[in-house]
UniProtKB/TrEMBL annotation:
The lineage of its organism: Eukaryota, Metazoa, Chordata, Craniata, Vertebrata. GO terms for biological process: cell-cell adhesion. Residues 1-24 form the signal peptide. This is Vascular cell adhesion protein 1. Cell adhesion glycoprotein predominantly expressed on the surface of endothelial cells that plays an important role in immune surveillance and inflammation. Acts as a major regulator of leukocyte adhesion to the endothelium through interaction with different types of integrins. During inflammatory responses, binds ligands on the surface of activated endothelial cells to initiate the activation of calcium channels and the plasma membrane-associated small GTPase RAC1 leading to leukocyte transendothelial migration. Residues 31-106, 224-308, 314-394, 512-594 form the Ig-like domain. Keywords: Cell adhesion, Cell membrane, Disulfide bond, Glycoprotein, Immunoglobulin domain, Membrane, Repeat, Secreted, Signal, Transmembrane, Transmembrane helix, Ubl conjugation. It comes from Bos taurus (Bovine). The keyword Signal applies. GO terms for molecular function: integrin binding. It is found in: Cell membrane; Secreted.
Length: 650
C-alpha cells in the first residue's frame, strides 16, 4: 500500500497531515487531530505531502476563501504554508488540495489563535502596613481569548479569590484582565508570599491547560512609633560644653533617624542622619529645639528636646553708632570695642561678603576699620565679629555714603524786568543719593516750588539736580529775597548737615515810562524869547535823559544829556521837533515837543539885541565869529544853547 503523508508543524506545535493513496484509491489520515493552537507572535508552518503520485499539483486555500496571509513554498511532492508571525487574521480552516492526474484529494486543518505570553503582575495600592487596608491587584496582560481565562490569588497556601471571565469578547483583541482583593495585613502576614496564578483553558479535550504564575513576598510595614530621646549630660548647658543626644524609634522596616533644629521662621535645619547627635563647644546661639524624626516608607514619628546654653557675659560695642552717614571723599573710622574679655579675636566683613575696601587695625580690646577715602563701594553693613574663647558676638554698623558738598546755586535766565517772565534755576551740584534730595524755592516767606527726585538704581554717581521756576517780577518784588533750600535726609539717619541754602536779593528793573516834558513859558514863542524844556522819566535804575533834535530826514541829532534844555534867545531856525528819551539797561521811553518860534513885529523904540550884536560884530567881526563857534560847540556839550550868553561877550 502506498501512503501519502500530510505534515503540519510550528514553533511550538507540529501537525502532520497524511494523504494515503493506493492503486485502490484508499486514503489514510494521521494524526487524527483536526486543529492546532498557535500563539500570537510565533511562527507556524503547515506542510502537505503526497505519495504515489509523481507530479502532483498542490495548492492551499481557506475554507471561507479568504486571503491566506502566509507564504506558500512548493517543491516536488511537498508544499508548505508559512505564517510568521501568527496574528488574528491567521485564525482559519485551511485546505490543502492535491490533484494527481484525474484524481483530487483534499485535507483540512484548523488553526486556533491564542495569546498568553506574559506572567501575571502583582501590584499593591500602597505599602502594606499592619492594620491598614491595602488592595492587591493581580493582572494578566495581553491575553486572548479571555473568556477561557481564570485568575486565582493566594496568600501563602490559602486562596483569597478566584475569578473567571465567561462573557466572550465582541472583538478579537489582546486584553489585560485582573482581579482585586482588599485586606488588612497582620503581624502573621510578615514574610508571607502572594501568588497570582493565571490559567488559560484553550483545549477542548483533556489536554492540560496553560498556566502562568507570579509570586511576590509580602513586605508588611509598621509605621514608626515610640520615638524617644536621651540626653547626656543635661539639657541645660554652659557655653563651651558638649552634649550627646541619642534617638530610637520602633517600626518595620527599622526607621531611618534624622536630627534637625527648628529655626526662627518655623523651618527646620537638617543636622545629622545618625541616631546619635553630638554637639561640641556649644554657644548661646545653639540653644533651641532639636527634633528627632524616625521615618520609613509608611510613616514618620517625631520627638523634640529643648537645649538651653547659657552664655558668658562679655559685650561688644561699635561706634560711632549703628548707622553713619559719610561724605564721599572723607575718611571714616569704625571702632569695635570689647569689654569683659581678656583676649578677644577680631574680624571685619560686609554683610554680603564683598571686599572691605578699608584698612583694619586690631590692638588689645579694640579694632578699627578705616575707610579712606569714602566711596560708593563703601555703602554696606559692616560686621565686627568678636571671638572670646568659644563665644562669638557680632555687631554691625551701616555706612551710607552721601555727597552734599556745597550750597545751592541760584541763576537767572536774564535780568529782572518788571512784567517780563524770567526763569530762576536752583542747582545742587555733586549730590548723592539724589533720590533723597528735596529742593524748595521761596520768595520771601512764600514757597514758589518744591521738587523731589526718583531713584535710578542702575548707577551710583554724583549728580547735579536742579529746580526751575518761571515767574513775572513786579515792583512789589523789589528788595525781596529768593531762598533756595536743599535738604538731604538719608533714610531717617542723623548726621551733621541735613540742609543747605542760598539767598539772592531781587533787584527788579523797571523800563523807563511816564516820560514827560515841561516847557516854560510855552512851546510857542516870539523870536528872541527864552525857553526852558525840562524832561523827566520814571524807571529802575533811574533813566538817563538824552535830548535830540529831529532832522528833516527823520534822524535824531543828539543835543544834551541834561534834564533841562534851555534857549536864552530863540531864533526862527530854532523851531522844530525836540525829542527827550529816558534810557536804562532794560528799555527806552520817548517824548516829543514841537517848538515854534514866530517872527517879532516892527517897533522903532525897540532896542534889538541882534542890532547890538551886529554892532559889536562890525567892530570885531573875526573874534566874534571865533567866539560864536566856540560857544556853539560848548552848547552842544553842556546841553545849554543860549544866545544871551553869546551876547554878553560883546
Amino acid at each position: 500500500m502506498l501512503r501519502k503523508m500530510f505534515v503540519i508543524f510550528g514553533a511550538s506545535d507540529v501537525l502532520w497531515m497524511v494523504f494515503a493513496v493506493s492503486q485502490a484509491s484508499q486514503i489514510d489520515i494521521f494524526p487524527s487531530e483536526s486543529k492546532i493552537f498557535a500563539q500570537i507572535g510565533d511562527s507556524v508552518s503547515l506542510t502537505c505531502s503526497t505519495t504515489g503520485c509523481e507530479s502532483p499539483s498542490l495548492s492551499w486555500r481557506t475554507q471561507i476563501d479568504s486571503p491566506l496571509n502566509g507564504k506558500v513554498k512548493t517543491e516536488g511532492t511537498t508544499s508548505m504554508l508559512i505564517m510568521d508571525p501568527v496574528s488574528f487574521k491567521d485564525e482559519h480552516q485551511y485546505l490543502c488540495t492535491a490533484i494527481c492526474k484525474d484524481k483530487k484529494l483534499e485535507k483540512a486543518i484548523r488553526v486556533e489563535i491564542y495569546s498568553f505570553s506574559k506572567d501575571p503582575e502583582i501590584h499593591l495600592s500602597s505599602p502594606p502596613e499592619v492594620g491598614k487596608p491595602v488592595t492587591v491587584t493581580c493582572s494578566v496582560p495581553d491575553v486572548y481569548p479571555f473568556e477561557r481565562l481564570e485568575i486565582e490569588l493566594l496568600k501563602g497556601n490559602r486562596p483569597m479569590k478566584v475569578q473567571d471571565f465567561l462573557e466572550p469578547s465582541e472583538k478579537k483583541a489582546q486584553e489585560t484582565k485582573s482581579l482585586d482583593v482588599t485586606f488588612s495585613p497582620t503581624d502573621e502576614d510578615i514574610g508571607t508570599a502572594l501568588v497570582c496564578q493565571a490559567t488559560l483553558h484553550i483545549y477542548d479535550d483533556d489536554s492540560p491547560p496553560k498556566v502562568r504564575k507570579t509570586t511576590k513576598e509580602l513586605e508588611v510595614y509598621i509605621s514608626p512609633k515610640d520615638t524617644a530621646i536621651s540626653v547626656n549630660p543635661s539639657t541645660r548647658l554652659q557655653e563651651g560644653d558638649s552634649v550627646t543626644m541619642t534617638c530610637a524609634s520602633a517600626g518595620l522596616p527599622a526607621p531611618r533617624i534624622l536630627w534637625s533644629k527648628k529655626l526662627d521662621n518655623g523651618n527646620r535645619q537638617l543636622l545629622s542622619e545618625n541616631a546619635t547627635l553630638t554637639l561640641i563647644s556649644m554657644r548661646a546661639e545653639d540653644s533651641g529645639i532639636y527634633v528627632c524624626e524616625g521615618n520609613n516608607p509608611v510613616g514618620k514619628d517625631r520627638k523634640e528636646v529643648k537645649l538651653t546654653v547659657q552664655e558668658k557675659n562679655f559685650t561688644v560695642e561699635i561706634s560711632p553708632g549703628p548707622q553713619i552717614a559719610a561724605q564721599v571723599g572723607d575718611s571714616v573710622v569704625l571702632t569695635c570695642d570689647v569689654r569683659d574679655c581678656e583676649s578677644p579675636s577680631f574680624s571685619w566683613r560686609t554683610l554680603i561678603d564683598s571686599p572691605l575696601n578699608g584698612n583694619v587695625r586690631s590692638e588689645g580690646s579694640k579694632s578699627t576699620l578705616t575707610l579712606s577715602p569714602v566711596s560708593f563701594e563703601n555703602e554696606h553693613f559692616y560686621l565686627c565679629t568678636v571671638m572670646c574663647g568659644q563665644k562669638k558676638l557680632e555687631k554691625r554698623i551701616q555706612v551710607k555714603p552721601y555727597s552734599f558738598p556745597s550750597n545751592p546755586e541760584i541763576e537767572m535766565s536774564g535780568p529782572l524786568v518788571s512784567g517780563n517772565p524770567v526763569t530762576v534755576s536752583c542747582r545742587v551740584p555733586n549730590v548723592y543719593p539724589s533720590d533723597q534730595l528735596e529742593i524748595e524755592l521761596f520768595k520771601g516767606e512764600s514757597i514758589m516750588m518744591n521738587k523731589t527726585f526718583s531713584k535710578d538704581v542702575s548707577k551710583k554717581a554724583l549728580e547735579t539736580k536742579s529746580l526751575e521756576k518761571t515767574f513775572i517780577p513786579t515792583t512789589e518784588d523789589i528788595g525781596n529775597v529768593l531762598v533756595c533750600l536743599a535738604r538731604l535726609p538719608i533714610d531717617e539717619m542723623e548726621f551733621e548737615l541735613k540742609q543747605r541754602q542760598s539767598t539772592q536779593t531781587l533787584y527788579v528793573n523797571v523800563a523807563p515810562r511816564d516820560t514827560t516834558i515841561l516847557v516854560s513859558p510855552s512851546s510857542i514863542l516870539e523870536e528872541g524869547s527864552s525857553v526852558n524844556m525840562t524832561c523827566s522819566s520814571n524807571g529802575l535804575p533811574a533813566p538817563k535823559i538824552l535830548w535830540s533834535r529831529q532832522l528833516s530826514n527823520g534822524d535824531l541829532q543828539p543835543i544834551s544829556e541834561n534834564a533841562t534844555l534851555s534857549f536864552m534867545s530863540t531864533k526862527m531856525e530854532d523851531s522844530g521837533i525836540y525829542v527827550c528819551e529816558g534810557i536804562n539797561q532794560v528799555g527806552t521811553s520817548r517824548k516829543e515837543v514841537n517848538l515854534i518860534i514866530q517872527g517879532r513885529e516892527s517897533n522903532k523904540d525897540y532896542f534889538s539885541p541882534e542890532l547890538l550884536v551886529l554892532y559889536c560884530a562890525s567892530s570885531l567881526i573875526i573874534p566874534a565869529i571865533g567866539m560864536i563857534i566856540y560857544f556853539a560847540r560848548r552848547a552842544n556839550m553842556t546841553g545849554s544853547y543860549s544866545l544871551v550868553e553869546a551876547q554878553k561877550v560883546c
